[in-house]
């Protein structure tokens, strides 16, 4: 489990195409300082398993499903990446609960820069808009952000200068893809309400009949 608070802006060192999958080698001295084989590190919001570490770098395999669901397949040597280690039990939850399970990719459609920060609008894949609410949370390329405006096909977030300086969103432009993970609590609520819908309908009918 992650929090969406990026620890380090890393870099892709090597990309090995393995057909349906890929192997990435990434530089991240801070996140690899205590990393071991089998540990998890979020890369642009995608939870990956560490295969090996050496000299401030780590290697991770990316399976076909991950390449399909995320933008990791577009990474090349030199690409900057947001890196975060899992939250330690008992640690501060400064962002929100992030699983590192990307729901899909969005596309930046607009960017407005100002002295106080930057507003970015992101187009949503079909079906994700129902999980967003104004002032709710959304993970964009592994960054926990607050939704300013929520619509069925897009949302807007405001970025402070620190976020722009320390993450990949500082250089992202309209047309660039971003990984999205909606708040998992919204998905559980939807599932629970859907499962209880027949029972709720029956109770309503009984209530009407008793009047």
UniProtKB/TrEMBL annotation:
Its EC number is 2.5.1.9. Pfam families: Lum_binding. The keyword Transferase applies. Pathway: Cofactor biosynthesis; riboflavin biosynthesis; riboflavin from 2-hydroxy-3-oxobutyl phosphate and 5-amino-6-(D-ribitylamino)uracil: step 2/2. The keyword DNA-binding does not apply. Transmembrane segments: none annotated. Lumazine-binding repeats lie at residues 1-96, 97-193. GO terms for molecular function: riboflavin synthase activity. Catalyzes the dismutation of two molecules of 6,7-dimethyl-8-ribityllumazine, resulting in the formation of riboflavin and 5-amino-6-(D-ribitylamino)uracil. Keywords: Repeat, Riboflavin biosynthesis, Transferase. It catalyses: 2 6,7-dimethyl-8-(1-D-ribityl)lumazine + H(+) = 5-amino-6-(D-ribitylamino)uracil + riboflavin. Residues 1-96, 97-193 form the Lumazine-binding domain. It comes from Streptomyces oryzae. This is Riboflavin synthase.
């Amino acid at each position: 489990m992650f929090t969406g608070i990026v620890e380090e802006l890393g870099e892709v060192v090597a990309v090995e195409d393995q057909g349906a999958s890929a192997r990435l080698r990434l530089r991240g001295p801070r996140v690899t300082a205590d990393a071991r084989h089998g540990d998890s590190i979020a890369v642009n919001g995608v939870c990956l398993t560490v295969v090996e570490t050496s000299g401030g770098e780590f290697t991770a395999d990316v399976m076909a499903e991950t390449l399909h669901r995320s933008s990791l397949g577009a990474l090349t040597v030199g690409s900057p990446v947001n890196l975060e280690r899992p939250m330690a039990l008992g640690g501060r939850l400064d962002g929100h609960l992030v699983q590192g399970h990307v729901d899909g990719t969005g596309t930046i459609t607009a960017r407005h820069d100002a002295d106080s920060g930057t507003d970015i609008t992101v187009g949503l894949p079909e079906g994700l808009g129902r999980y967003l609410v104004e002032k709710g949370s959304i993970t964009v390329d592994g960054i926990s952000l607050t939704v300013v405006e929520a619509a069925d096909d897009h949302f807007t977030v405001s970025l402070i200068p620190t976020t722009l300086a320390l993450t990949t969103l500082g250089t992202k432009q309209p047309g660039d893809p971003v990984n999205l993970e909606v708040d998992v609590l919204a998905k559980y609520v939807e599932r629970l309400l859907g499962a209880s819908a027949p029972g709720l309908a029956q109770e309503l009918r009984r209530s009407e009949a008793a009047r």
